[in-house]
């Protein structure tokens, strides 16, 4: 059974009660770690149909006008077909409902996202573009529905001979930063709901949350090619009370990355019953300077991610990462199924030393690969509990500056320096947990 610390459970349960109260959902008992699925909105402020011909016009103005004029607590519904838009700004309490068969496609013209004349170019900062959809200082609302938001990251930028993704790859080879839009950015928001929506082909990160107090991602699908650089799935940054549940994520970078920068700590994040495919794994970091704590990950599959369970930081951006619990996790096809490293960038310099403490792994099963537990030094060592952790005999440990405690479920293979086990470690039955990625149908062009 997955055990939530009382503080985490009460806070997230309270957050959920507030968040879904407008969606006619009721909470389960306070001692249950499960949550009810949010219901669809009952009040629709407007229903929009697409242009009869996809190429006939840009929908930005009418979409933004409809959002601005939608009353708080109601939803703007996009009906089946294709909508084409530049950047949109959401309003407090307004939900964007993208129906089954509807697609909202992002304009690939860098000029419509431009902040400082740099969008669609390379420089050494990479912050020259507005996001496609922005929530700023909003309370309530979100994005729901069985439709698609497509960032068109693989399409040629208007007026250029390369796509957003090709620009990002060129930035890597030239040692510079790409100026590309994120798909969704939530800044200083609260009580945000994403439900059922497919987010795909973002030019950059798919969803970032910065200084957010309360958000739910339920049944979300994030789908981007493995070679699309810097296309993280969901990144909570300096945020609190976040639930990610029953979602499917494959990306060209971190599937989920929990971060904490100078803006403050990230705390009380719960991931339940999620499936990750290609990508860089279930990550914490690399920015941890603000402190990260009270993270719970349970019932997760990592099917082909390069890293599996991962905490990454270094002395240029380190901080305290503590009270992290992983339980009931199945891994296969990973190069580093466990990747807990305080020297993420070996060339980094600074005095912000990463410290990972009070971290437990329970009922974890995988195949082969490198199992990395690397603390910074003897003074700043890792503190881990391993209980029922099973990998094949071909897996290899890389352990430096780490203090381990082995639980009654044992560990296999036995880490170097640990006493041989007196009992066999039982691998989890992961066969029943693997699930193919549920691809969302693309609406036809009229």
From TrEMBL:
Biological processes, Gene Ontology terms: carbohydrate metabolic process
Gene Ontology terms for molecular function: polygalacturonase activity
InterPro entries, per database record: GH28_Enzymes (IPR051801), Glyco_hydro_28 (IPR000743), Pectin_lyas_fold (IPR012334), Pectin_lyase_fold/virulence (IPR011050)
Top-level taxon of origin: Bacteria
Keywords of the record: Glycosidase, Hydrolase, Signal
Signal peptide: 1-29
Pfam families named in the record: Glyco_hydro_28
Stretches that traverse the bilayer: none
PANTHER family according to UniProt: PECTIN LYASE-RELATED, PLASMIN AND FIBRONECTIN-BINDING PROTEIN A
Record-stated family: Belongs to the glycosyl hydrolase 28 family.
Protein name: Polygalacturonase
Lineage per the UniProt record: Bacteria, Pseudomonadati, Pseudomonadota, Gammaproteobacteria, Enterobacterales
């Amino acid at each position: 059974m997955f055990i939530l610390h009382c503080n985490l459970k009460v806070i997230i349960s309270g957050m959920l009660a507030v968040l879904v109260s407008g969606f006619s959902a009721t909470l389960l008992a306070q001692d249950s770690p499960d949550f009810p699925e949010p219901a669809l909105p009952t009040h629709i402020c407007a229903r929009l149909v697409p242009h009869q011909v996809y190429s006939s016009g840009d929908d930005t103005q009418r979409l933004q006008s409809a959002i601005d004029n939608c009353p708080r607590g109601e939803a703007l519904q996009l009906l089946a077909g294709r909508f084409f838009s530049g950047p949109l700004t959401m309003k407090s309490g307004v939900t964007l409902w993208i129906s089954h068969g509807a697609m909202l496609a992002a304009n690939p013209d860098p000029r419509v996202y431009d902040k400082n004349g740099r969008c669609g170019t390379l420089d050494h900062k990479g912050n020259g573009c507005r996001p496609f959809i922005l929530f700023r200082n909003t309370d309530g609302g979100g994005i729901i529905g069985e439709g698609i938001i497509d960032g068109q990251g693989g399409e040629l930028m208007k007026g250029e001979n390369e796509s957003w993704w090709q620009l990002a790859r060129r930035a890597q080879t030239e040692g510079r930063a790409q100026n590309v839009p994120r798909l969704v950015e939530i800044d200083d928001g609260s009580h945000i709901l994403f439900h059922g929506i497919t987010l795909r082909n973002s030019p950059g990160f798919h969803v970032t949350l910065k200084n957010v107090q309360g958000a739910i991602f339920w049944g979300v699908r994030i789908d981007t090619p493995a070679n699309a650089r810097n296309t993280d799935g969901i990144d909570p940054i300096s945020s609190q009370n976040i639930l990610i549940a029953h979602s499917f994520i494959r990306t060209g970078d971190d599937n989920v990355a929990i971060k904490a920068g100078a803006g403050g700590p990230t705390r009380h994040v719960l991931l339940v019953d999620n499936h990750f495919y290609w990508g860089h794994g279930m990550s914490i970091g690399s920015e941890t300077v603000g402190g990260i704590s009270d993270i719970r990950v349970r019932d997760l599959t990592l099917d082909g991610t390069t890293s599996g369970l991962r905490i990454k930081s270094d002395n240029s951006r380190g901080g305290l990462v503590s009270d992290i619990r992983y339980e009931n996790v199945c891994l296969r096809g990973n190069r580093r199924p466990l990747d807990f490293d305080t020297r993420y960038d070996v060339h980094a310099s600074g005095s912000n030393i990463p410290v990972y403490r009070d971290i437990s792994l329970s009922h974890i099963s995988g195949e082969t690969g490198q199992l990395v537990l690397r603390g910074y030094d003897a003074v700043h060592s890792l503190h881990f509990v391993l209980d029922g952790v099973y990998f094949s005999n071909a897996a290899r440990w890389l352990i430096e500056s780490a203090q381990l405690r082995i639980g009654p479920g044992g560990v296999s293979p036995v880490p170097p320096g640990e006493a041989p086990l007196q009992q066999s470690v039982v691998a989890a039955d992961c066969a029943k947990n693997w699930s193919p990625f549920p691809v969302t149908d693309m609406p036809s062009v009229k």
